[in-house]
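Support request from a user on the community tier.

User writes: "When I paste my structure tokens into the form, the page sometimes reloads and wipes my input. The last time it worked, I copied everything first. Here is what I submitted, just in case something in the input itself triggers the reload:"
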């Protein structure tokens, strides 16, 4: 801390480097050498083999959730299947009940479900937090608004899978009540 305003801070060892051989006017004075070669390297890597499929809509998401619930909770088959078989069945179910162009495969269904599961998990946490904060006289719309605020965490992010959340929540509640 400086005791007097007229005192200068101690020297910290930093001094700007000035080179008299080069001007600092924005142009460089590097000489052209005859031995410099301009090498052009062409990119020989193959174009990505990813199949860019159209995005999923709400109806297709709901069919995917229905397939996941149908095949994931089957007491006849159980969960004793390999992942490819399980997601293949869900893909077949989705392609049977929705029009996909091109048809979705098991990997696309698994990836979409995992993406939705991550977002829905975050939303459920935000909704549960809003329910714990619920004050006297709050309506369900107030709880949803508070959950949206918690979900956004101060960022400009909105939860967009409301219909999927409602459908999956009510279907899972029905399954739990039945069993």
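"...and here is what came back when it finally went through:"
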């Amino acid at each position: 801390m400086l005791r007097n305003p007229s005192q200068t801070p101690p020297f910290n060892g930093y001094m700007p480097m000035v080179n008299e051989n080069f001007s600092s006017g924005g142009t460089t004075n590097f000489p052209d050498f005859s031995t410099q070669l301009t090498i052009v390297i062409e990119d020989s890597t193959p174009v990505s083999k990813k199949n860019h499929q159209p995005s999923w809509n709400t109806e297709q998401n709901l069919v995917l959730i229905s397939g996941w619930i149908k095949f994931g909770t089957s007491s006849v088959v159980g969960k004793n299947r390999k992942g490819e078989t399980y997601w293949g069945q869900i893909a077949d179910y989705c392609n049977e009940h929705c029009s996909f162009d091109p048809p979705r495969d098991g990997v696309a269904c698994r990836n979409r479900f995992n993406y939705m599961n991550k977002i829905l998990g975050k939303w459920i946490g935000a909704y549960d937090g809003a329910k714990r904060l619920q004050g006297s006289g709050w309506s369900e719309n107030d709880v949803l608004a508070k959950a949206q605020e918690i979900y956004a965490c101060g960022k400009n992010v909105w939860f967009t899978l409301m219909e999927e959340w409602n459908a999956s929540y009510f279907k899972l509640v029905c399954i739990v009540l039945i069993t």
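Agent notes: The reload is a front-end session timeout and is unrelated to the input. The helical segments are 58-72, 83-97, 106-133, 140-152, 162-178. The mean pLDDT is 74. Escalated to web team.
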